[in-house]
Design brief:
Elements (H helix, E strand, L loop, with lengths): L1 H21 L4 H8 L11 E10 L7 E10 L4 E8 L2 E8 L2 E6 L12 H7 L14 E10 L3 E11 L5 E9 L2 E9 L2 E11 L9 E7 L2 E15 L10
Antiparallel strand pairs: 1-2, 1-12, 2-3, 3-4, 4-5, 6-7, 7-8, 8-9, 9-10, 10-11, 11-12
Length: about 240
């Protein structure tokens, strides 16, 4: 009798665990997230894009910068060339290592320690969102961020290999993505797309960025994609 009770309790406990795990992802949240499909450009081997960013700081003139980003998906190589205020900086990711150089400086410079991990993530920018075991996705209904943007929100938490959690809030309108909100140690950050998008390749779209300062959302940057080319003949000298 006692054995049967223990077995029953164990079965109930396992059922509770399973039902709890299944409840970690709302059906509507899954539908919206997994609806973000990759860009329809066929099989992508590489991409070469040019981006112009205008940054805004209170009391100062807007500052413009341009960036050329070349990604070799097949060889897992990446180069970014950024020009700002008359200075040109080049970051190269090759063989898992990052090198940094500047025009006029006859040597390579130490890259920020987090640069490699951040650049590695760009190889997966064209992959769809695939909800994994342990991820949590909830549908929050309609949410507004000031008078900037409003839409159906999905809160999505995923974990890296070390178990570190990352939470993002995705806003949708008519099943298309219109904004992404994130929190960090010093505040909140919001990216609003110039037009609704339905693809996971989010770097290919114009956007405006905001930060929450003193309870008010303030625009900190506008980003404009000037050109995007897929599957081009790569200039090997870029990766030197």
């Amino acid at each position: 009798m006692i054995t049967r009770r223990i077995g029953l309790l164990a079965a109930l406990f396992i059922s509770l665990l399973v039902s709890t795990a299944a409840a970690q992802v709302d059906a509507r949240a899954r539908e919206l997230l997994e609806g973000l499909t990759p860009a329809d450009v066929g099989e992508i081997h590489n991409v070469d894009q040019s981006i112009k960013t205008t940054a805004y700081v209170d009391g100062e003139e807007p500052m413009e910068s341009t960036a050329r980003i070349v990604i070799d998906f097949d060889g897992r190589r990446l180069v970014t060339i950024t020009e700002m205020a008359g200075m040109s900086t080049k970051l190269v990711l090759k063989d898992g290592q990052v090198t940094m150089s500047m025009v006029g400086v006859p040597m390579t410079l130490p890259a920020p320690p987090e640069a490699a991990a951040q650049m590695e993530q760009m190889f997966d920018q064209n992959a769809p969102i695939l909800i994994k075991d342990g991820d949590v996705a909830t549908f929050d209904g309609v949410v507004s961020y000031g008078d900037i943007v409003s839409g159906e929100q999905v809160t999505y938490t995923t974990h890296d290999d070390a178990g570190e959690a990352t939470t993002l809030h995705y806003l949708f309108q008519d099943d298309k993505l219109i904004a992404v909100h994130s929190g960090f140690e010093d505040g909140e950050f919001l990216v609003v797309y110039a037009a609704p998008v339905d693809t996971g390749a989010l770097m290919g779209f114009d956007s405006s960025s905001y930060m929450l300062q003193g309870g008010t959302w303030k625009k900190v940057a506008d980003t404009h994609v000037e050109a995007v080319a897929y599957n081009t003949t790569l200039d090997e000298s870029l990766f030197e």
